[in-house]
Amino acid sequence: MLNEIFNACDTKMKSSVEHMLRDFKTLRTGKVTTSVLDNVKIDYYGTQTSLDQVGSIIAQDATTIVVNPWEKNLLADIESAISAANVGATPNNDGDQIKLFFPAMTVEQRQESAKKMKGMGENAKVSIRNDRKNSNDQIKKLEKDKEVTTDESKSAQDRIQKTTDKFITEIDSILRTKEAEILKV
């Protein structure tokens, strides 16, 4: 019974860290990545479709992304979707493909990006603390229902706390690394 709680807690906490790392991909660092377009959707024959499903997206260099649609009649739709998404660059349509030229990040933009990253990290920590609370509540319920002893409950809650501490430490380490990457000129 307790092992199921430990495993579920561990899985939920891992998923919180993974979610934070996925969110980080939407942040802009010194080098532009194609993931800045991950949330851009276009109307593809009546269905909201991800940009990478209707064409190729390539980071040509540190400041340029090229979107090459598989159907040329989608160029205008893609261009307007990118403009609406406000990704930090104006799309340039040359009739065959769309190029996005991202300007070099200013110090203020880097600091703003680092601030957003810290907020994402804090959200992950809150999620982990909520997972800890839910797990401890389940353990306390088992103790109340006399399914585990008081000593077993205490040691189980200590184990949940150690798991929580491990994931919070991991998040702090990731945040330090990512902040150095963002602020590096």
Key traits:
185 residues, alpha+beta, Topoisomerase I, Chain A, domain 4, Gyrase A, domain 2, 2 domains, 4-stranded antiparallel beta sheet, two-stranded antiparallel ribbon, 6 strands, 57% helix, 15% strand
Report what the structure shows:
There is one protein chain. The protein is α+β, with helices and mostly antiparallel strands. It folds into 2 domains: 2-26 and 106-183, Topoisomerase I, Chain A, domain 4, CATH 1.10.132; 34-101, 2-Layer Sandwich (Gyrase A, domain 2), CATH 3.30.1360. 57% of the residues lie in helices and 15% in strands. The chain contains 4 helices and 6 strands; from the N terminus they run αββββαββαα. The protein has helices at residues 2-24, 75-85, 107-144, 150-183; strands spanning 41-44, 47-50, 55-61, 64-69, 91-93, 98-101. It has a 4-stranded antiparallel sheet with strand order 3-4-6-5, covered by helices on one side. It has a two-stranded antiparallel ribbon with strand order 1-2. A hairpin with a 2-residue loop joins strand 3 and strand 4 (64-69). Helix 3 (107-144) runs antiparallel to helix 4 (150-183). It is elongated and about 70 Å long. The chain starts with a helix and ends with a helix. The relative contact order is 0.16. The model has no long low-confidence stretch (mean pLDDT 90).
List the helices and strands and how they pair.
Blueprint: H1 2-24, E1 41-44, E2 47-50, E3 55-61, E4 64-69, H2 75-85, E5 91-93, E6 98-101, H3 107-144, H4 150-183
Antiparallel strand pairs: 1-2, 3-4, 4-6, 5-6
